[in-house]
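User: Here's a chain of 284 residues. Predict its fold as tokens.
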Amino acid sequence: RVVADFVDGLGKRADLPLDAIGAKDILAWRARMAERVSAGTVNRNLKILQGAWTSASRVGLVDNNIVRAVETLKADRNRTERRAFALDEIRRILDVCSPDWKGMVLLGLYTGQRLRDIAELGWNQIDTAKSEAYFIQRKTDARITVPLARPVLEWLATVPAPDRPDASLFPELSSMDQSTLSRQFRDILEAAGIVRKKTKAEAAHAATGKGRSARRETSEVSFHALRHTAASLLHDSGAGAAVAQAILGHQSDAVHRRYVHVETDQKRRAVEALPDVTKAGPKS
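Assistant: Prediction complete.
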């Protein structure tokens, strides 16, 4: 999955010969990762990519292991803690979304799945009769079934029926790489007034991985914050830890999950108890 994520981030450059990929590509990938995950995860992924380059070198595909030239990141003790969205923020986000991105946000909130897994969702993974969606998580290969909340079903009813059952739910978004999707969602957050617009210098630093601000400020809110929001809302709704883990597909507390069997009805009750962000909230 690490190598697939790197290739995904290359965009059109992924079609180039391997020896045409340079250190700048690795730095850009490192910078994109640093916006989503911790320094420790970035460094582990760099090590995995370095191993892939070593294997390529052994079979003569490349002359040098360019990944070795890329420095690992130091842990940022001042790193802003990732947080969940407030419900008012979700409503502001939905107000500025295109129809496709509204669906992405609603699915992110009510299923807790990751950006790429939602963008690649196909109609054949949705069962409207059962009000369920079936996901294969890219990160873990986990296969999970998630009941669909009413706001998601109402949004699905507005989407034209596909010509083929295996058609993508988001034809345009599914063809975009991870970094493009993340940038588009960042634009949505800016339009909603949730994050400030980056300066040209900050945008350049983020693209190259250079400069003091490249690692200093990790965005505390991204699409992944919807996953945090889903977990928090499930907890607030009274769903047990095992039910929430089954919905989100978390791999932590694996031993506990072996002993707890979560039925679909339990997951459905938990999802149905979540607040409807498509309706106006109480006036403050």
